[in-house]
Amino acid sequence: MESLCFSPSRSPFHAGFFNTEVFKTSSSNAVKCSRLKPSIYATLSKQGVEILPSVDNISRVLPSTAPAPVPLLRVSPSSLQCESGRLLPNENLGRGVVAEGTLNAMEYLTNILASKVYDVAYESPLQLATKLSERWGVNIWLKREDLQPVFSFKLRGAYNMMAKLPKEQLERGVICSSAGNHAQGVALSAQKLGCNAVIAMPVTTPEIKWKSVERLGATVVLIGDSYDEAQTYAKKRAEEEGRTFVPPFDHPDVIIGQGTVGMEIVKQMKGPIEAIFVPVGGGGLIAGIAAYMKRVSPEVKIIGVEPFDANAMALSLHHDQRVMLDQVGGFADGVAVKVVGEETFRLCSELIDGVVLVGRDAICASIKDMFEEKRSILEPAGALALAGAEAYCKYYGLKGANVVAVTSGANMNFDRLRLVTELADVGRRREAVLATYIQEEPGSFKQFCELVGPLNITEFKYRCILDKQEALVLYRQDIFYVLPFILQKGKEYVYWPSIFCCFTITTKYVSFSFSYFL
């Protein structure tokens, strides 16, 4: 049994932007937690990597003098759903209030212009996607943040914050918690600045990711089963060792660093821009881009893009307050956050035009589009803006305009490529994945084969469920064969509310259902 004893961490926010002595320590009671170390973790141990037991069952005791924090409204991602591509407008656009201790618009603008990110980051190219532009009928420009040294925009914010730290703080080192791109950004920034960096990552982090961080010279600590547990450990260790905690998005200097993406777009784009589509997780990238664009080119729409199952910003704007998702989808893991940042939400509620939502299949289709266009493979979060731009342009019939999509990252796990490939054609409506149950009795499978025989089936799976005396059949087929086949065979009902149709065919043995999004 191993235990950790620590005090709650200090806030990462500056009390004042130009004040370097800004961190305040908590006087709260120590927190204790313990958990057995599973023996399997020992097999993962590598030189330079610490593997610690998970932080579990944590209870915080607030000081009696501190007011209790206002609990966040807990909501389900499914509580706000709409057709893909429809803009969920920000009703508070232009009504922001600058709170005490936060930066105003001019301070954000001037600090973005003076940012130090180019000591380590590139000015990423803005490229016209010619094939996609012809297909969509608009000029689609790709802001290639996937070409940065760590294949992600995260380097900008991490370095901008760390480069502003006083020398004595850098000497004490930095620490962060991340399962992906932010970790690499902090590690490379620390290498450039010559300071020690510790990166806390969940034990579920793929080996390829933590090894890439380790190669940059950082000390990797594998701890906990989730990002929240890794973050708890990182903040506790920052408190104990005097390290600076580098947050992934909710800090003015991080937002300023990400805002240089918007500055570059203005510099590189010669014609008028209709809209810039930005992937949204915690909100740092879109807040930074909006902070610059809305002061320089206020007519340009700044539109966030989120997955249907990770729509924390859309729901926060909808409720006019930060909310906490009760669950979050993990496919686009780079944007899978339950709560957006406090400062990022303040900026977004004032500056962005709204959010569009897209599904997993559309994201996979955009990954394939990017490969066919530029021979680059984006991660799901990196292709999010491209999927949102396409859905928006199709929904509103946009033609001839200039739209920009930020391709934010390319740290794709190789073992996910097969899933992406399978879902890409579904996202393009070229294939359908269908499922049905049949009775596990003589003649039922023959009857099923006769029913679907005319279809162009590309993959077929059959699973027998012994305790229910029935079988699950999954199969894929060319989408263009489905509707003619169903219309010939007859249908029990049609439900057509403008976005999808459902068909059911019933025989003696088989009930076959099919849903098709138009």
Number of separate domains: 3
CATH topology title of the largest domain: Rossmann fold
Secondary structure tally, helices: 16
Q: What class do helices, strands and sheet pairing give? A: alpha/beta
CATH architecture of the largest domain: 3-Layer(aba) Sandwich
**Strand order within the widest sheet?**
5-15-13-12-16-7-6
Radius of gyration: 25 Å
Given as residue ranges, the uncertain stretches (5+ residues, pLDDT < 50) are 1-48, 54-66, 477-518
Q: Note the beta-strand portion.
A: 15-25%
Helix fraction bin: 25-40%
In round numbers, the mean pLDDT is 77
- Which term fits the overall shape? globular
Domain Tryptophan synthase beta chain-like PALP: 122-409
Domain ACT-like: 422-476
Pathway: Amino-acid biosynthesis; L-isoleucine biosynthesis; 2-oxobutanoate from L-threonine: step 1/1
Keywords: Amino-acid biosynthesis, Branched-chain amino acid biosynthesis, Isoleucine biosynthesis, Lyase, Pyridoxal phosphate, Repeat
Molecular structure report:
Pathway: Amino-acid biosynthesis; L-isoleucine biosynthesis; 2-oxobutanoate from L-threonine: step 1/1. The protein is globular, with a radius of gyration of 25 Å. It has helices at about 105-115, 130-135, 155-165, 165-170, 180-195, 205-215, 225-240, 250-270, 285-295, 310-320, 340-350, 360-375, 385-395, 415-425, 445-450, 480-490; strands spanning about 1-5, 30-35, 50, 75, 90, 125-130, 140-145, 175, 195-200, 220-225, 245, 275-280, 300-305, 325, 355-360, 400-405, 430-440, 455-465, 470-480, 500-505, 510-515. Helix content is about 35%, strand content about 20%. Helix 3 (about 155-165) packs parallel to helix 5, helix 12 (about 360-375) crosses helix 13 and helix 12 crosses helix 14 (about 415-425). Mean pLDDT is about 75; it is low at about 1-50, about 55-65 and about 475-518.
